Amino acid sequence: MMKKLPIYLLILTLFSCGGDPETSKATRDLEITYEIDTVMVDPGDHFFFVQYGLGMSDVDKRQKLLYNFNNQDMKMEIIDLENLKLKELRQYEKEGPNGIGGGFIMRIQVLPDESVLFYDFVGIHHVAKSGEKLATYKLEEIAWEGDNLLDEEEIDVASLDTKDGKTFYGFYGAQGFESEIKGMANFNVENKSLKLFPSDFLQFTSSYDISFEMNGGGMAKAPEQNRIRVFEDEILITTSAKNQLWQWNSELDSLISRSFESQLSSNSKKGNFPMLASSPEEFREAMKEKNKEVSFGKLIYAPDKNTFWRVHREMDRLTAGDTIIYKNILTAFDSEINQVGETLLPERVNFFEPGFYLDGMLWKFLNIDDEVAFVRVKPSISE
User: Fold this and answer.
1) How far apart, in whole angstroms, are the C-alpha atoms of residue 157 and residue 119?
2) What count of other Cβ atoms lies within 10 Å of the Cβ of residue 354?
């Protein structure tokens, strides 16, 4: 499939030391082509843990291995993505000197040395490939050097990203039901240095949160997906609420904002849904209405092409049975994060939020009768 794509103008605004707005360089008029396939993973006699939709997984791109953590049995399923089969099961300990229990593991990250970071509400467990625990970092108990958090402020462990397991980047602010992002944090767990960059640039996203309260107490909140991710030497921040991203230079304390324009969807959520629910039924109905609005996925870096890809979606129509039919839009960005084109993916392909890029393809998990499969889109851009 091939579609001609228009040129888009990117508007940049600099938030640093009173900087003036800038205008991006003109982008090229490029074409996007893609191929799509679906592949199954051979489980052997194993039953994969798919309860969270592989939401507890990460990819070692050099080894072409997917690590999927079962936080109920404390097992790691390691999938060979080249041969599409289970390669190894690795058992982790909950208690003892190598234990990673005591908190709810909510995310993992595989480092270049094949060690694994386990992020939980307590902090970060760093475990070697052998299973030996190298360290546990309880962030609230560290006596930081440099900047200081206020009593009501915490580092948001769920937001953290790192390249080496030593220097981390993430959000900080109030946590829990009254969560609020007050800025970004940059810290090093070896020298215990902490640097804070206060900013309210993401404050607008709280306008799209749905809160569930009963009997005057907070029960749950459905916030926007605000992410910090490290790509090579870039620290990029995105939100699901708006067609925008920010480039953070922690050394210079600067934040550059880039706004993009889509011709195939809205460029921001409108907020045409209830913000407060007082029953589970009201909460589900509010979420259904919110899910009709545009949502922007994460940026995925393609190192072989030095480009970035993103998929976002918005409701196209409702069926007679009240099922939402989405349009999924694939967007390409060049190495300087200039938007160079966008195109619709086929309606039959549910490709919102692909998980990773490998072998020239974007991969998204697909649950087929509790078996692991992947839909893969192989995109390219050309003159």
Assistant:
1) 7
2) 23
When the pLDDT of each residue in the chain is averaged and rounded to a whole number, the result is 90
**How far is the C-alpha of 239 from the C-alpha of 172, rounded, in Å?**
16
Give Rg (Cα) of the chain.
21
C-alpha to C-alpha distance for 46 and 85, rounded to whole angstroms: 11
C-alpha neighbours within 13 Å on the C-beta side of residue 258: 18
Q: Both tokens of residue 30?
A: 């490029």
Residues in contact with 235: Cβ distance below 8 Å, sequence separation at least 6, in sequence order:
169, 228, 229, 247, 248, 249, 250
- Residues facing residue 343 across a β-bridge: 330
Output phi, psi for 203, to 5 deg: -60, -35
DSSP string, 132-193: -EEEEE-GGG---EES---TT-EE-GGG-EESSSSEEEEEEEE-GGG-EEEEEEEEETTTTE
Q: CA-CA distances (angstroms) from residue 145 to 62, 140, 174?
A: 35, 13, 21
What's the pLDDT tens digit per position in 266-276?
999 999 999 99
